[in-house]
Amino acid sequence: MVGILISSVVLTAGSLSAGDVVGSALAPQLLDRVSSSSTVAVVSTSVKFESSNPAACHYQSCFTLQRTSDNGATFTTGSLPAVAVAVVNGSLLGDIRDVIFASQDDGFILQGSGPVTTLKVTVDGAKTWHSERIAPNVSIVDFTTTHHELYAVIAHCAANGRCTDYRIARSPLTANHWTFTPLATWPSGMGVGLGAYGSHVWLTQQTHATVLVYASDDQGRTFTRSSAPMLGSVYACSITAKSTIVLWAECPTGMSVSFFYSRDGGVRWNRIPVTQFAGTGGGAFDPVSSTIGYLEYGPSDTPGTKNLYRITDDGRTMTPVGTLACNIVNGLVFTDEMHGLAACDRSNTQATTYLLRTSDGGATWKRVNLT
Questions:
Q1: What confidence score (pLDDT) does residue 342 get?
Q2: Which run of H or E residues covers position 99?
Q3: In a 10 Å sphere around its CB, with 0-12 CB exposed, 13-18 middle and 19+ buried, how is residue 180 labelled?
Q4: Which residue ranges in the chain fall short of pLDDT 70?
Q5: What tens digit of pLDDT does each residue of 312-369 get?
Q6: I need a surface site. Which of 44, 47, 208, 331 has the fewest CB within 10 A?
Q7: Which residues contact 285 (CB under 8 A, 6 or more apart)?
Q8: How does the average pLDDT of the chain come out, rounded?
Q9: Nearest-angstrom CA–CA distance, 327 and 307
Q10: Contact 328, 345 (CB under 8 A)
């Protein structure tokens, strides 16, 4: 989707080593688990960053990338590529759209929105970054990784959001050798959901009539199609694959979001029994493994009410486990059932945006100092 660009100044995020101190506190804006490991990447902005005056960062970085492998006890700090400072749809992450690590060394940043998006690549654990091009003048509609390969849905998109010539692209983790499979019939503006695990790839397609799931077991070369009407939404459901058969789906249904679980590769789905989950309500969803997920509902009208739930039993059971007192959860990542991190915005300001951690499955949370 094309956001409103309020301001744009290109800044280079500085490279720091472990133990270096940033001049002011950092506000976490994005979390990404490194594949299925215990490592989590945290992208933060300086609390001195002012969206109306990007130059206020002066000689310090607006953006910082850190990684932790011990649930926030210690961090190492890497570099980021040049970032165009902009406020897009309320995000303070400049033109960074997503940060994804397929391994400890191999990472990817999607930058930009609209007709053309760019792909930045690191092969040395975020010490350095370089640009790679999937194809000329295309937008990356969706992107995912496995342990060994990259998958992207690309299209030629106009400034009004209308896209044509949808293709699925595949490459080794080097991101420099892409092969393409056309997606012949794809309704523009309805989005694409993409998930992958090993050589298995799934696509979800929302049409005006129904929802279709495309499944491949040969790296996206050929697909079989099935109907999944219960996944009906206003935009294609996003897919998280946790094995060759276990899928989690997140489906926007207007102002709300529905969630689903499949144990047979997307042929049949269980509706996760959530109460109304507002897509703009400040909550977060984290499919942790083949058996466990977490859902945080956002702020409650009743202080102290448990708003964090553990999802088990093939998506059938929701168990309240704890409370995250946040207006907005910028990111929620559990590395196993007990250990997790949350980027918590308590009162809609950078100065009150903290990283929190839990070691007891979300029952209690403690603040992590990122300075």
A1: 98
A2: strand 96-101
A3: middle
A4: 1-24, 48-61, 85-91, 188-189
A5: 999 999 999 999 999 999 999 999 999 999 999 998 888 889 999 999 999 999 999 8
A6: 208
A7: 250, 257, 259, 293, 294, 295, 296, 332
A8: 86
A9: 12
A10: yes
The residue among 23, 26, 31, 44 whose CA lies nearest residue 92 is: 44
| Interatomic CA distance for residues 135 and 155, integer angstroms | 10
pLDDT in the model for residue 19: 30
State how far the Cα of 246 lies from the Cα of 197, in Å rounded to an integer: 10
Structure tokens at 254: 């207007």
State the Cα–Cα distance between residues 221 and 223, nearest whole angstrom: 7
Cβ(286)–Cβ(259) under 8 Å? Answer: no
- State the sign of the Cα–Cα–Cα–Cα dihedral 213, 215, 220, 223: negative
Tell me which residue has tokens 């301001």.
7
Task: From residue 26, give the alpha-carbon distance in Å to each of 22, 64, 133, 148.
Answer: 8, 8, 31, 33
What distance separates the 2 farthest-apart alpha carbons in the chain? 55
Residue 63: per-residue pLDDT: 87
- The residues near 323 (Cβ < 8 Å, ≥ 6 apart) are 300, 304, 305, 306, 307, 308
Q: What angle do CA 39, 45, 49 make, to 5 degrees?
A: 175
Residue 219, both tokens: 């790296």
